[in-house]
Amino acid sequence: MTTRQKIGVIGGGQLAWMMAIAAKSLGLELTVQATSPDDSAVDMADRVVYGKVDDAEATAQLAEHCQVITFENEFVNIAALQAMLDRQGDGNLLFLPNLETLAISVDKLNQRQHFHDHGIPTPKFYAVDSQSDLLAAAEQLNYPLVLKARRHGYDGKGTWVIDNEIALLSAWQSMQQLPAIAEAFIPFERELAVIAARSESGDVVIYPVVETIQIHQVCRRTIAPARISPAVRAKVETIAQQVVNTLDAIGVFGIEFFLTATGEVSVNEIAPRTHNSGHYTIEGCQTSQFEQLLHIVSGHPLGDVGMVAPVAVMVNLLGFEEASGVDADYLAKREAIANFPKTYLHWYGKKSSSVGRKLGHVTILADSHDMALDLSDRIESIWYGS
């Protein structure tokens, strides 16, 4: 397999920042396509090209400096990227994951249709392109139901849990009647997630299954390994392998699941990139998700995904106010958190805070779930207050 030294990343946020840190440890050259000099990855990358994520002209500049391009987020213009490939025609421009995989992954309707076509368990769904589609779907699904924008949703944005027709029509108006999906609400007991990595040769590794704790549809904690039965764990791992193989996926994928009280597992969503649920892997696993993605796109063998401690818990440090100058304002809280044992704080260097914005995260390594969760409670009390 050909190895590649020069890697490009579309996006300059915290995921690209953590990838840039990993690239230095692996001796790889990383160029990022950042929106502004304030982006987290700018100071850590070897080179920066400026342009919005969907700016194909900026991506063309990025391509001049690298042998392969991967993605920090999925807000890209796939048609424009495909046109770049078609114009070049010599095979020297490589996107990983490839654009065919990306076209399925970034669109929630395409995701659901792919799962349905390949027998992968997923909630019942309907395409929504008009108000009549919306009301027809509601009649089939009953309430509560979930309404999601097909693209550009994250951290609960673009997603509504709907209890009645008035709320349904209000949500449809608030999303400006853009293409959407309506799907069955799953009365889950827990939300699970896993990072799956697949190489160009088709080798697959599955990281430990984790439990995610969501507050207002934003991940607050990740608990690794999840407190689930071996049978559920095996079911999740089997589905994750099926997802990446049927997508012919090359890269690192975050896959989110619902677990019901009766032990049923279904896929909620996939992300064609490194994922918040995998941040614990930086300290918690032999190979972090960021190193793993770089192994794959540079053409190196997959790394060991085993954990280095019995338990790892990641706590997101989310913004809880509208503020600027957060580096200084939150310094005392960060210093207090950093004093905990076997605790690793990652601060993304963002210049402003807003409610729910990811400003950093903390990973705790421990010998048991009880020890890790006790430290997590104490850290959250410092950050968020009682």
UniProtKB/TrEMBL annotation:
<keyword id="KW-0067">ATP-binding</keyword>
<comment type="subunit">
    <text>Homodimer.</text>
</comment>
<protein>
    <recommendedName>
        <fullName>N5-carboxyaminoimidazole ribonucleotide synthase</fullName>
        <ecNumber>6.3.4.18</ecNumber>
    </recommendedName>
</protein>
<dbReference type="InterPro" id="IPR005875">
    <property type="entry name" value="PurK"/>
</dbReference>
<dbReference type="GO" id="GO:0006189">
    <property type="term" value="P:'de novo' IMP biosynthetic process"/>
</dbReference>
<dbReference type="InterPro" id="IPR054350">
    <property type="entry name" value="PurT/PurK_preATP-grasp"/>
</dbReference>
<dbReference type="InterPro" id="IPR011054">
    <property type="entry name" value="Rudment_hybrid_motif"/>
</dbReference>
<keyword id="KW-0658">Purine biosynthesis</keyword>
<dbReference type="GO" id="GO:0004638">
    <property type="term" value="F:phosphoribosylaminoimidazole carboxylase activity"/>
</dbReference>
<keyword id="KW-0456">Lyase</keyword>
<comment type="function">
    <text>Catalyzes the ATP-dependent conversion of 5-aminoimidazole ribonucleotide (AIR) and HCO(3)(-) to N5-carboxyaminoimidazole ribonucleotide (N5-CAIR).</text>
</comment>
<feature type="binding site">
    <location>
        <begin position="268"/>
        <end position="269"/>
    </location>
    <ligand>
        <name>ATP</name>
    </ligand>
</feature>
<dbReference type="Pfam" id="PF22660">
    <property type="entry name" value="RS_preATP-grasp-like"/>
</dbReference>
<dbReference type="GO" id="GO:0005829">
    <property type="term" value="C:cytosol"/>
</dbReference>
<feature type="binding site">
    <location>
        <begin position="183"/>
        <end position="186"/>
    </location>
    <ligand>
        <name>ATP</name>
    </ligand>
</feature>
<dbReference type="GO" id="GO:0046872">
    <property type="term" value="F:metal ion binding"/>
</dbReference>
<feature type="binding site">
    <location>
        <position position="191"/>
    </location>
    <ligand>
        <name>ATP</name>
    </ligand>
</feature>
<comment type="pathway">
    <text>Purine metabolism; IMP biosynthesis via de novo pathway; 5-amino-1-(5-phospho-D-ribosyl)imidazole-4-carboxylate from 5-amino-1-(5-phospho-D-ribosyl)imidazole (N5-CAIR route): step 1/2.</text>
</comment>
<feature type="domain" description="ATP-grasp">
    <location>
        <begin position="112"/>
        <end position="298"/>
    </location>
</feature>
<dbReference type="Pfam" id="PF17769">
    <property type="entry name" value="PurK_C"/>
</dbReference>
<comment type="similarity">
    <text>Belongs to the PurK/PurT family.</text>
</comment>
<dbReference type="GO" id="GO:0034028">
    <property type="term" value="F:5-(carboxyamino)imidazole ribonucleotide synthase activity"/>
</dbReference>
<dbReference type="InterPro" id="IPR016185">
    <property type="entry name" value="PreATP-grasp_dom_sf"/>
</dbReference>
<feature type="binding site">
    <location>
        <position position="148"/>
    </location>
    <ligand>
        <name>ATP</name>
    </ligand>
</feature>
<dbReference type="InterPro" id="IPR003135">
    <property type="entry name" value="ATP-grasp_carboxylate-amine"/>
</dbReference>
<keyword id="KW-0436">Ligase</keyword>
<comment type="function">
    <text>Catalyzes the ATP-dependent conversion of 5-aminoimidazole ribonucleotide (AIR) and HCO(3)- to N5-carboxyaminoimidazole ribonucleotide (N5-CAIR).</text>
</comment>
<dbReference type="InterPro" id="IPR011761">
    <property type="entry name" value="ATP-grasp"/>
</dbReference>
<feature type="binding site">
    <location>
        <position position="108"/>
    </location>
    <ligand>
        <name>ATP</name>
    </ligand>
</feature>
<dbReference type="GO" id="GO:0005524">
    <property type="term" value="F:ATP binding"/>
</dbReference>
<keyword id="KW-0547">Nucleotide-binding</keyword>
<dbReference type="Pfam" id="PF02222">
    <property type="entry name" value="ATP-grasp"/>
</dbReference>
<dbReference type="InterPro" id="IPR040686">
    <property type="entry name" value="PurK_C"/>
</dbReference>
<dbReference type="InterPro" id="IPR013815">
    <property type="entry name" value="ATP_grasp_subdomain_1"/>
</dbReference>
